[in-house]
Amino acid sequence: MNHLKKISILFVFVAIGLLIFVACSDNTAQDPSKFSNAKQVENTYGLTDFELVNGIGPIKQKIDLGPIDPALVKKGQEIFDTKCASCHKLDEKYVGPPQRDVYKRRSPEFILNFMLNPEENYKKHPEAKKLLGEYLTQMPNQNLTIDEAKAMLDYFRKVADEK
Amino acid sequence: MKNISKKNLLSALGILFLIALVYAGCNQSKSSLTGDAASQVYVAPGTYDEFYAFMSGGFSGQLTVYGLPSGRKFKVISVFSQNPETSWGYSEETKGMLNTSYGFAPWDDAHHPQLSMTDGMADGRFVFINGNNTPRIAKIDLKDFETTEIIELPNSGGNHASPFVTENTEYIVASTRFSVPIPQDDVPISSYKENFSGSISFVKLDPGTEKMNVEFQIIVPGFNYDLARAGKGPSKDWAFFTSYNTEQAHTLLEINASRNDKDFVAAVNWKLAEKYLKEGKAKTMPAEYYRNYMDEKTHSAVSEKNTQVKVLYPEDCPGMIYYIPTPKSPHGVDVDPSGEYIVAGGKLASVIPVHSFSKMIKAIEDKQFDGEIDGIPILKYDAVIAGEVQNPGLGPLHTEFDDNGFAYTSAFISSEIVKWKLGTWEVVDRIPAYYSIGHLMIPGGDTKKPFGKYVVALNKITKDRYLPTGPELTHSAQLIDISGDKMKLLLDFPTAGEPHYAQAIRADLIIEKAIKFYRIEDNHHPHSIKGEKESKVVREGNVVRVYMTAMRSHFSPDNIEGVKVGDVVYFHITNLEQDWDVPHGFAIKGMNNSELLIMPGATRTIKWEPKKVGVYPFYCSDFCSALHQEMSGYVRVSPANSNVPLAFSLGK
Lengths: 163, 652
Description:
The structure holds 2 protein chains of 2 kinds.
Chain A: H1 2-23, H2 49-54, H3 70-84, H4 102-105, H5 108-116, H6 118-124, H7 126-135, H8 146-161
Chain B: H1 2-31, H2 37-41, E1 51-56, E2 63-68, E3 73-77, H3 92-95, E4 99-100, E5 103-104, E6 114-118, E7 121-131, E8 136-141, E9 146-152, E10 164-165, E11 171-175, E12 180-181, H4 192-195, E13 196-205, E14 212-221, E15 224-230, E16 238-244, H5 253-256, E17 262-269, H6 270-278, E18 283-295, E19 300-312, E20 321-327, E21 330-335, E22 341-346, E23 351-356, H7 357-365, E24 369-373, E25 376-379, H8 381-384, E26 385-390, E27 396-401, E28 406-411, E29 416-421, E30 427-432, E31 437-441, E32 454-459, E33 475-481, E34 488-495, E35 502-506, H9 508-511, E36 536-540, E37 543-551, E38 554-556, E39 559-564, E40 568-575, E41 584-588, E42 596-598, E43 603-608, E44 614-619, E45 632-638, E46 647-649
Parallel strand pairs in B: 14-19, 37-40, 39-45
Antiparallel strand pairs in B: 1-2, 1-35, 2-3, 4-5, 6-7, 7-8, 8-9, 9-18, 10-11, 11-13, 12-13, 13-14, 15-16, 16-17, 17-20, 18-19, 21-22, 22-23, 23-26, 24-25, 27-28, 28-29, 29-30, 31-32, 32-33, 33-34, 36-37, 37-38, 39-46, 40-43, 41-42, 41-44, 44-45
């Protein structure tokens, strides 16, 4: 009986927690600390294990990487030169980190999610926060499509092999 | 176990109670203010207004965008006047938009915004506005809220009755408030009656290219054509224009143009005019006028000079135009949602005359004429009139409509809005305006289906409504609730320049189409560069072209040397950002024009002619990031005869 009572009380608490979350879920309710004892949360950052490794964004599962596509490499390089090279060089620290080895440092999914959704990652992701601490400037969102981001990924795969 | 069930039941009840409590708590702020004016105009922080309102900037020459019901100002769209804030008319790309046959015209007087229509309903594609002083019509694209085309009107003076659109925006109409010699000529002013004429212009919007063209003009007697509306529904092939000064006075109009008991509403069958045009009835007249448009690919103005215009004369075109006698210097002319009633605001009249379109057609068929002027038959007043609104207030000007069969007329002299019923012509309500109302506006109030929720009073005099700011006061607009039987004042809000007329449209019709930035891939500006490594400085004689990029938070290049006194420097700056709300600015010490404001994905150019030796700082003038202050650089200016080589760099 005591056991069941405990379960009931726990249930009530969890329910209250969820209720407050649901009922008041305007934009402010996004702060993960507000539901830190809710069950789906698995780490101190309020991120899933997948997100911790692969960033927060539209890529929600591991992707299949085929062979490097030269057409995509070319497209990726064009995008990089136009939209990214103001702040990133391949081999030197600049406004942002050097990019030649990004494919070796990060998972492909992280690279995609960070390009596609920088703002949310800066707010929530420990790796992004670390980058901000080091470079003191946030990477702007250049509104790439997923296909454009994937082309850039092939470009990064290619340049990673070149050195 | 029973015990446990009870406890569970209690828990469940407790949860239900908490649900109620939490929801009530969260919703409290939304519901507790119902019923008072404040709650009706309160748009909570972070939420959107229901309507966009486009309010003319009057003598500012611009167009201002507001939200309704909040009265919050969102944007000043640069149209006819140079605007140093946006570099409109200062940047090399936009200067050409202000070209006219009289040269560069950096100002105008903008009166009447008009939303484009499809089937008699505002469609959210464009808003047009007239330039009254140097006759022009501007087209603003509602994808990016930027002026994309300005066309000059030949044979016109005081382009006031403009720019009102036909039911499907086939035409934008315009006519002369001030008659002039057509074609222009050196004649005595006292020969007004012999030598001066009016013109009614039909500007066609090409359905494919969406560009404007002065398709034809109708040359009419030299009266003052004041306002206009196109018909809709049964009257969709017609457009109506008020006139005053049928006395044809050319001096002291205050007295001399107010003698006649009746002036005219001109009714023009534009479909028939189109047919006459096709049949070759038009004469081609030499005329000089400009059409300027922003090329979509280069984001740069293209100016075209036109040298002729097609004109139709009423005597050659029977049935194309009629005059409807209308009391005492009518000002506004407005067509009700059904398209049957044509309401004229006789500003010196003691009644509001309402003409009937169907009676007009019958009167034309039955030849109920009372003479003619220059080939224009004058219809008999009694054969066309549907009714007169008695005691409508002093100085009735303009009328808009709701969706319940009521009309709302502004009365300038008695400073009020008068609500009356179509069909019975009875006045049912009135509300004072503070002060001296000119136009009034109901969202969709000129369309087939008005949104009869609010009327906005656009007032000429402000006096004591706001904190005093010296002799010059902002003009005041007032939002009035018209959803009930009695009109109810909700809100005063200040406006920019002088709001003559305004139009409003449901926000969702525009939000979906509004773009957030220009795609850099689509930027075909001849001096754009697609990435920082293309940035460079090039000398062509004494012209120095700086191909610069802007990206949070630096320009490339940011150190430039080898510029000399006497050089003409063009900064071609491409904003490489591809994100919403990240324009960059550019300003360099001593510039004699304006800052440059560059939208994400766009290229803009500002000219700089350094006159003194020295090192000149430049910087980003629109806050862009945490390191915005660092977004700066230097240009070294050497003497005219110096040998300092041209050099540019970043981070070296």
